[in-house]
Amino acid sequence: MTPVHFAFSTTFILGLMGLAFHRSHLLSALLCLEGMMLSLYVALSLWTLQLNSISFSPTPMLMLAFSACEASAGLALLVATSRTHGTDRLQSLNILQC
User: Fold this and answer.
1) Is residue 79 part of a domain?
2) With 0-12 CB in 10 A as exposed, 13-18 as middle and 19+ as buried, what is 6?
3) pTM of the predicted protein model
4) I need a surface site. Which of 12, 16, 44, 54 has the fewest CB within 10 A?
């Protein structure tokens, strides 16, 4: 494994661990998801550059578009949750109450 692949793998794993272990606020969960998506985007971009293939070149842009949609949906949920519950703490959310 090259140092570049190791760096992107470590970045993704750290984002995943942050998402799994530090689930106190919705904003921190969204930041961990964005870090994971950013590491995947950069790794996929470098992978397409290494392959020198034109057929894989739109893939990173498609993933970046999905990441932007995920971020906007997450921020909309963050605003809606903080307006209705007064906080973004995940412990205050109850799935049984609507």
Assistant:
1) yes
2) exposed
3) 0.82
4) 54
